[in-house]
């Protein structure tokens, strides 16, 4: 039985150090603002991130630090996106060592998904994402013929597939998590999925402060990966706008299908959390236009740097964490 918590999360489980074994096999993915965040994390940290799954997200530095560009060209008027200009920005940032070497992107697997009924981030924007990565030499798989709205597609959880409303998770008879991870990790993913175990869900502190990110990230760590000698793959999943803990509780963490895949494929899933700041970021989006500072799309960006810290913490072999559910709740499962 899957347990979904909507609203604020009360963390009551055991506190302490947890062993974890994570290999160098690290990828990222996300929906909407999380898709944009996945792209900029991949490009900025390409020495440690080796692939990306982009659901309804645009190309790297699409907004060029401007909010108006973000909500026009990067969501609706994708034909105005100048890829030559964005690639020049990659070259400039690489030369300045603000991002890792772009040659790391060559042959990385990139999965790009856009629903035919997505009228929030139009498919033409995602086509530009695919073209950007193709020009960077990545191996791109694009899905543009599936009739979904602006949501994360799942087999049987959420809103009607063509809708674009909260919680922005769609009942689409399609497992987007499995489809994307199978492409990013073709030698790792089995055709079967397991059952999420509440005891394997942990929280760990984020250190940026609430103007940048929320106080906690979440990590799903199967028992097979709770060993510092394990060699589990790591996939970092970024939620979209209006999908933070304050908006929908743990629904995105628990109901998008990643944990069931992790359970039988030796994956750790990391869910960083943005924060719904009333003044700067009321919808709890990831920063892909510059509200956290001008270097937001580089490895010195406050959110990107924190994600790198979280990745390195998991790779260190031991994390200070809190088990999200109490023993009694796990037993009731």
Automatic annotation (TrEMBL):
Q: What is the lineage of its organism?
A: Eukaryota, Sar, Alveolata, Ciliophora, Intramacronucleata
Task: List keywords of the entry alphabetically.
Answer: Hydrolase, Signal
GO-annotated molecular function:
hydrolase activity
Do you know which PANTHER family this protein is assigned to? POLYHYDROXYBUTYRATE DEPOLYMERASE, TOL-PAL SYSTEM PROTEIN TOLB
- The organism's superkingdom is given as Eukaryota
Under the heading InterPro entries, the entry gives: AB_hydrolase_fold, Esterase_phb
Full protein name: Poly(3-hydroxybutyrate) depolymerase
Keyword Cell membrane assigned: no
Look up the signal peptide feature and give its range. 1-17
What's a GO cellular component annotated to this UniProt protein? Answer: extracellular region
Tell whether Hydrolase is among the UniProt keywords: yes
